[in-house]
Write a structure and sequence with these properties.
This protein has about 700 residues and is of the alpha+beta class. Helix content is about 60%, strand content about 5%. Keywords: Guanine-nucleotide releasing factor, Repeat, SH3 domain.
Length: about 700
């Protein structure tokens, strides 16, 4: 009801009493009794109280209607804006609509109990105090960012005209202000609640039962606004330090000035004083526990990300391995079913699994890791601000006053610390929930993959010869087959070792026999070692040696007692080499001495590793043998070998008749290789496993 109608109604109610006896003596203002003045004052206060309550309810109805227009009509029509912009502009307006809808419903219900309405309104505000603070502080914190977006839209005339047309069609009273008019409405409303309550309180008698309740509600809403302002200030401080900038060295150097140098020097000095025990360190057990929990969460996320990355790499390598496309040189039967099933899985099941894994596990995990960067930077900045805070506190105790900049630094630390203590617990909890959901998704994907593989394999399994065998019998069959195969492999290994040439190292380099003879005469045969692979020295005392060079051992550890680095002598230089790349070089008598030729040449020795290999000279020309060791060609007359590579021997000696070198053909290339690197491959008995009859 409008204010004028209420006043007219009150006057009409009072007219009959005034007109009942026109000639009655009316007390003049000077002679009116105190009781009469009190009643008039009470009636006036009651009237203004009813007007204030009516204003509260009526404006709440209009406010909620405007919120609903913003949340549905206007936001729904601004589809030309990115979704991210809409999320910033309207923030959590849906939550505000829900809270204020319930709040308005409670206000309207108080109207049915007019005698207790004021007290009910006070209790209602106390009941909604926390909810109002929670939803409005989120909206107010993002308000400045929303205004920045509005300013960017104004720089694009065409876009601004479209936005303005939509708003004027829905809310004509917005005028030229447009979005700014709508966005500021929730801020105006939350700040107006204490004023409306104060107006009701001023027109409530102090001795009324509703007065203390209404007084507490007024103070509560004032605290809500104060807390929102403090939260907004903390968010502004935090947003300044949560930005993780990727700066180049030049950009970092450009930011250095006398002010930053002074700050960093002061902080370093404060830190050194604390480490030396000259000044006390501020202890905050609550924050320390939260920080430890956060670092633990960060470590879990980091390790999980690394493991998933390794899993994806292995999966990628697995998808590149396609044995079904190779010629297995095995007859039909189960091999056909195996190839068909594997091809199906490689082309469909596994690629789909990888796609889902990247989208549902890897990308959320990367987003979670990126989310941790902001709090990590805040925690780091808090330590810097704590050093500033401690220095200012010391000065405050000594001098009694601080400068404006020092006071700002003091408040900055308090804001950062308060916000971290308030929000880190919730952040840690949400991060763990996020990580837990990612892991559950990963397990679910694994389960789906296993289920899909089994479904695809059902048809192929039915065609395999062992599909009718019970599980226990199949296990026994596999174990027996593996045992038989293992025995055959051991037998093959023993037979192969009998015909293998000895584990000879690379032949001596040309012209090295004289150097080896000098080392032999100086150190003796027990100190000679041969390099098994090329060595590249990394340190100043490390040697760089080619494979096959013979050295003499001086000490089997370095100066620090590290037994993996040996000190050796090459006959010209001394230095350290890895012990794992050295093998004992044995000196054996010449063939003539083995045949019993004694005499003055009894001590003459042949410088070649022992035991002597089975010579390939007995192998007829054009014989197929196997390369036992890898060999790297050093000239165009030689050819490289890989261990296990089939080799065709063309001549079992070189052009001078030396049997230590053989002319071979490998993959269409011809050249000489050491004869000791070749051996006949035995033909073992057929092996494998078969089904029981």
């Amino acid at each position: 009801m409008p204010t004028s109608d209420l006043l007219n109604q009150d006057l009409q109610e009072r007219e009959p009493a005034d007109m009942a006896d026109p000639g009655a003596d009316e007390p003049s203002p000077r002679t009116e009794s105190p009781d009469g003045e009190g009643r008039v004052s009470e009636d006036r206060s009651l009237l203004h109280q009813r007007l204030a309550i009516r204003e509260l309810i009526d404006t709440e109805v209009s406010y909620l209607h405007m919120l609903q227009l913003c949340a549905s009509d206007i936001r729904g029509r601004l589809q030309q804006l990115p979704q991210g912009d809409l999320d910033v502009l309207f923030s959590n307006i849906d939550d505000i609509v829900k809270v204020n809808s319930r709040f308005l419903h409670g206000l309207q219900e108080t109207a049915s109990r007019e005698e207790d309405q004021v007290q009910l309104i006070g209790n209602l505000f106390l009941e909604f105090q926390e909810e109002l603070e929670q939803v409005y502080k989120v909206y107010c914190a993002s308000y400045d960012q929303a205004l920045l977006l509005v300013d960017t839209y104004r720089k694009e005339p065409e876009l601004q005209r479209e936005i303005q047309g939509i708003i004027e069609a829905v809310v004509p009273q917005a005028g030229s202000s447009g979005l700014s008019f709508l966005l500021v409405i929730p801020l105006q409303r939350i700040t107006k609640y204490p004023l409306l309550l104060q107006k009701i309180l001023e027109n409530t008698l102090p001795d009324a039962s509703a007065y203390p309740v209404l007084q507490r509600a007024t103070h509560a809403l004032q605290d809500v606004n104060a807390n929102i302002n403090e939260y907004k200030r903390r968010k502004e401080v935090a947003s300044k330090y949560t930005k993780v900038e990727q700066l180049t060295l030049r950009e970092r150097l450009a930011r250095i000035n006398t002010h930053t140098l002074s700050k960093k020097t002061t902080r370093l000095s404060q830190l050194l004083k604390q480490e030396a025990g000259l000044v006390p360190r501020t202890e905050d057990k609550e924050f320390d526990d939260l920080e430890e929990r956060f670092h633990w969460v960060s470590l879990c996320v980091k390790e999980t990300k690394n493991n998933v990355a390794a899993y994806l790499d292995n999966l990628e390598a697995f998808l590149h391995f396609r044995p079904q496309e190779c010629d297995l040189d095995v007859g039909g039967g189960p091999v056909v079913q195996y190839c068909s099933l594997t091809r199906d899985l490689q082309l469909q099941a596994f690629p789909e699994f990888k796609r889902r894994l990247e989208g549902l596990v890897w990308q959320p995990l990367c987003s979670l890791a990126k989310t941790l960067a902001g709090p990590q930077n805040l925690i780091k900045k808090r330590l810097d601000k704590l050093l500033d805070f401690e220095r200012v506190e010391e000065k405050l105790l000594e001098v009694g006053s601080v400068s404006y900049e020092e006071e700002v630094a003091r408040h900055t630390y308090q804001a950062l610390n308060s916000m971290l203590v308030a929000e880190l617990p919730q952040f840690n909890q949400l991060a763990m929930q996020w990580l837990r959901q990612i892991l559950c998704t990963f397990v679910a994907l694994q389960r789906d993959l296993a289920k899909q593989v089994l479904q695809r394999a059902e048809g192929s399994l039915a065609q395999l010869p062992h599909h009718h065998i019970p599980e226990l019998a199949f296990r026994k069959l596999v174990e027996d087959a593996l045992g038989q195969t293992s025995h055959q492999l051991h037998s093959f290994q023993k037979n192969f070792e009998k015909v293998l040439p000895p584990p000879t190292i690379q032949p001596l380099l040309p012209g090295a026999e004289r150097q080896v003879q000098a080392l032999l005469s100086r150190y003796g045969p027990g100190k000679l070692y041969q390099v098994t692979s090329n060595i590249s020295g990394a340190g100043t005392l490390d040697l760089t040696l080619p494979r096959g060079q013979v050295v003499a051992l001086l000490q089997n550890k370095d100066t620090k007692g590290n037994s993996s680095r040996w000190l050796v002598d090459t006959g010209g230089h001394r230095g350290y080499v890895p012990a794992g790349k050295l093998e004992l070089y044995r000196v054996v008598p010449r063939d003539k001495e083995l045949r019993g030729q004694a005499g003055p040449h009894e001590d003459s020795r042949h410088l070649t590793p022992e035991p002597t290999p089975v010579p390939v000279s007995s192998v007829p020309t054009m014989t197929q043998v196997v390369a036992v060791y890898p060999f790297l060609a050093r000239s165009s007359h030689e050819v490289s070998l890989q261990a296990g590579q089939p080799v065709t021997v063309l001549e079992a000696q070189d052009k001078k008749g030396n049997p230590e070198w053989s002319l071979v053909e490998v993959d269409g290339q011809r050249g000489y290789v050491p004869s000791s690197f070749l051996a006949r491959a035995p033909s073992p008995a057929p092996w494998g496993w078969s089904l029981p009859s």
